[in-house]
């Protein structure tokens, strides 16, 4: 994978990926999350994916993608710590597989660049009809959040954990702001993104000449934009605090518990291998302590798993429990963490987890999406584009003490429980 700066705040990542019969062109826009535009940026990918100036409705878009041998076009957004990311991707078969010699790569580039830089405007703003339709979809998604109790519990815990910090901005949007969001406001947020975002053009599976053509096409689009790229927020971590325990009551069959921990300082890229193995040992695999002990041996939960967010230096433990067992489950989760910090770790469990991780990482290069996700995350982490092979080698070198060093940094900040009112019971 090669990465070069092609303009201020704009980089090209390219891999010819010769073993694939498909290619992929992605344009990533990354920018610091802002509270005042969070809902607009949540709506933006929904509206952009409906079509662009030369293909302004979903029917035409479907026909175009079918004509291109079933190509795919996606627009999605996701948070990365205190930064937000919007990505436009076009994927399809390589030029040499076209039945009539069609210039498919050029067509894919046109789709991606058209979607990114030439939305289907009406009167200089996003089509009000399209905005109205997608506002309904966003509103419903936000209203339905409470119905997915596992997700709701995690998000409520995050809000308590991050508070007013940049990572606490609700990048899924704010329900109370949806109705008032206008095409003009959405257009202003879109133009600000074009002007201020750090842009990564990822081209996978294309020859060098084709890559140059796509790069030049992007630079032509950017020449019409008054660029003022803003630096991204770096890795962060919430400070240590006395644990806050929050409870919400619902009429639910299964209680949900989310516990959030902080390492208290921004995570370094060179800690990533130890973090991966620590999570696998603690709660990220079927041979982990949480799975084998809290779930299987003690029968304290229906599921119990840990995950780590490198951009915010935080660990989440999510579990589904019986209402009466919530306190015992929390205590058991904390005990397993303490046991890993101070007690023995057998060679067998360490190697089982290591081999499981290595097996999963062996598939990174088996898809264009896997390659893209890996290297884009490396860019955002600022880790110098570590290759999957280098990451696997680093994982093989992690020791028990490296694992303990990570786990010893973690301290509980928030325990968020969804349960039912006392005195209620299943009928």
UniProtKB/TrEMBL annotation:
The protein's GO terms of the molecular function aspect are:
metal ion binding
Gene3D superfamilies according to UniProt: Metalloenzyme, LuxS/M16 peptidase-like
**The Peptidase M16 C-terminal domain covers which part of the protein?**
181-354
Name any one Pfam family assigned in the record.
Peptidase_M16_C
Give the protein's recorded name.
Peptidase M16
């Amino acid at each position: 994978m090669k990465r070069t700066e092609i303009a201020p705040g704009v980089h090209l990542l390219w891999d010819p990926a010769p073993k694939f019969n498909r290619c992929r062109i992605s344009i990533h826009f990354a920018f610091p999350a802002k509270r005042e535009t969070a809902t607009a940026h949540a709506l933006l990918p929904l509206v952009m994916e409906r079509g662009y100036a030369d293909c302004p409705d979903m029917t035409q878009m479907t026909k175009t993608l079918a004509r291109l041998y079933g190509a795919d076009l996606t627009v999605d957004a996701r948070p990365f710590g205190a930064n937000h990311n919007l990505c436009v991707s076009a994927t399809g078969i390589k030029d040499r597989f076209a039945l009539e010699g069609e210039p498919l790569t050029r067509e894919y580039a046109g789709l991606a660049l058209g979607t990114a830089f030439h939305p289907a405007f009406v009167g200089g703003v996003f089509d009000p009809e399209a905005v109205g339709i997608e506002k309904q979809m966003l509103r419903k998604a936000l209203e339905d959040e409470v119905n997915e109790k596992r997700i709701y519990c995690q998000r409520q815990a995050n809000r308590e954990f991050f508070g007013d910090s940049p990572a606490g901005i609700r990048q899924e949007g704010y329900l109370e702001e949806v109705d008032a969001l206008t095409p003009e406001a959405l257009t202003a947020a879109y133009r600000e993104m074009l002007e201020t975002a750090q842009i990564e053009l990822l081209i996978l599976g294309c020859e060098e000449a084709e890559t140059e053509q796509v790069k030049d096409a992007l630079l032509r689009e950017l020449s019409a934009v008054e660029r003022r790229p803003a630096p991204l927020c770096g890795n962060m971590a919430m400070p240590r605090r006395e644990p806050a325990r929050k409870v919400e009551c619902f009429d639910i069959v299964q209680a949900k518990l989310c516990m959030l921990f902080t390492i208290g300082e921004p995570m370094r890229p060179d800690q990533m291998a130890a973090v991966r193995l620590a999570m696998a040992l603690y709660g990220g695999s079927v041979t982990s302590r949480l799975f084998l002990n809290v779930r299987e041996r003690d029968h304290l939960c229906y599921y119990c798993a840990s995950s780590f967010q490198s951009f915010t230096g935080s660990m989440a433990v999510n579990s589904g429990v019986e209402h009466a067992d919530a306190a015992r489950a929390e205590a058991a989760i904390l005990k397993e963490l303490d046991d890993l910090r101070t007690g023995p770790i057998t060679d067998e469990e360490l190697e089982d987890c290591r081999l499981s991780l290595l097996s999963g990482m062996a598939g990174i290069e088996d898809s264009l999406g896997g390659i893209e996700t890996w290297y884009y995350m490396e860019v955002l982490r600022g880790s110098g584009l570590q290759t999957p092979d280098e990451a696997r080698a680093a994982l093989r070198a992690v020791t028990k003490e490296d694992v303990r060093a990570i786990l010893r940094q973690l301290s509980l900040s928030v325990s968020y429980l969804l349960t039912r009112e006392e005195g209620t019971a299943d009928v």
